[in-house]
Write the structure tokens for this entry.
Amino acid sequence: SDIDISKKNAGYFAAELIQDGMAVGLGTGSTVFYAMERLSERISSEGLDMIGVPTSFQASMRAREYGIPLSVIDEYPSLDIAIDGADKIDSSLRMIKGRGAAQTLERCVADAADLFVVVADESKMCEKLHGPVPVEVLPFALGLFERRIRELGGIPSIRLGVKKDGPVITDSGNFEVDCDFGFIDEPELLQSAINNMPGVLSCGLFTEFTDRTKVVIGNENGVNIF
Ligand code: DER
């Protein structure tokens, strides 16, 4: 489909940014999948010498399938580049992430990286951030969290499993709660308000990386860089 071609163009472009000796954050989701596919080709065809730090079980399992050597943040607390996806990206490069419930570990890896490369198709671009903000929450704190979100004007809904009865459990063993505030006027303020709530691991608003972010938007003919 056109979307798959767009994601592939974005992912392949990002993979070409990786040079020998780099430590690379590997994000979660279907668009980064294409970056991994290209990295795998470069490792086997060019002997690309790189190390990947994954952001989820999905990313690490895929990277292993692709023969991408892996390590952890404890070994590589500074990364050259993190390649990741996003769900919404505004013109200031602020984002909503977390569709894959991986935003907490993705934030750690993005923070460790000198350059945050976000790969997406055009459907992710928007004028104003809006819609559900995923939040990883300690099960212990759920009821209090839901109360605080409502007091802030949001509508919380805990993410339920599809092939699992009961709530989704994140790779770190917590709940994921989608909090809808409609259109978000001040993403930075909302991000800190949510992240400061007791029991919150992290929310999917990513506004703190804009000065070291390169957004690669794929389309069926190639990419646009922001
Ligand atoms: O969960 C996440 O933040 C992922 O990066 C995700 O939002 C991107 O997924 P996609 O590339 O499959 O759209």
